[in-house]
Prior knowledge:
globular
Amino acid sequence: MLNKNSLIITTFAVATVLISPIILGSLPGASSVYAQTFPGFLPSQAPSTYQQKVTQYDHQKNCATDQHTETTYKTYLTHFACGHVTVLNNGTTLRKFTLIADDFNGTGKPIVISTNTYGLGKPLSSSNQTYKPVIFHAWTFNGTVPGPTMRFTQGDHVQITVSVTNDSKFPHSLHLHSVHPGSMDGMSGPAGMIEPGKSFTYNFVATPAGVYPYHCHMFPVEEHISRGLYGMMIIDPQTPRPHATEMVMMLNSYSYSFQGVNGSGHFTPTIPASMQDIQQNLSDVIQRSDEGNGPDNQFYSVNGMPFGYVGKDSVHLTTGTPYRIYLANMVEFDPLNNFHMHGNMFYYTPSGTLDSPRTYTDVVSLMQGDRGMLEFTYHMQGLFMFHSHLNHFSDLGWTGFFSVDNKPGPFFNNG
Length: 415
């Protein structure tokens, strides 16, 4: 059994490796286990060429040099974890990641889901009231909601080791949307149930290029997702996309309906009725099976913070600059969400795959698990809202602003 302290030490030891430079090497059986080679290389090319091309592409992707410090809603916007990278002698790129799943003895980690930023959503009824942050008790991958954005290139061999902390009350798993073997699907066998104190390594070849969510798939899935066990992964095409400044936007929600104020409550899933249930109390069966009678969400957000990107924390953009947003929806308990951009239009590619048709619009609707890629450029200056056009969601936190001017600079002018 792994205790939490030893697990944290191990994690930081791995993290130290994660931020080290790309390592050139070979593994026993590499020619058979890692059969797919990195594209565009001839056998006569020196191994250093493999390393150079991978390093150059990772730099172009804005891969994070620090992959162990917990992100905030501000740093999450542009944080891409590309893993511990080894370039094998046959040209294969191997990427290793570690995810720590923790439900904190079932009650969750208290995280702050409100800000004291002046603007929409400031939780103050008067200027004299003391600010008291809103706390949500979350289950986390690597300590944050959402979990880290993992990024690879199509054809990379990927290894993701999921470790469930010893102080977790429940088993967890990792389900990845993409193409992979059934033994790596996170639904059955060792991959489908990782007990507290145990680990499992998911091995797969990244394909196809696109944008994907990942999440825990333990029953009841609604609780494991709504408490925070989800994130995004990006599989980049082998030929780089046109240059653009990139962002990640994960749409999410928070519900206190079953967990309560201190996180001790748990979700009671709806199960199919028996014939005896139907015969004895049909009206009760109808009521319990009605989707509208499930839990409600009290907050909605983008990147984990309701009303995060408002006021002084509005996202700064520059006119004439091409931007790309990787977008995914993991809101639980609501069948539909959407993204609307003010004062502009964007090209939208569902799932971000190379074969997906592009549309030109200013609003896109997503069910849970839906995702896509937005590409746009602002040509006019001003303050432009982006939000859910389900205005109830906007009122409860899923609202942000782009502050657009003609001055190049960082996304957040206040640091």
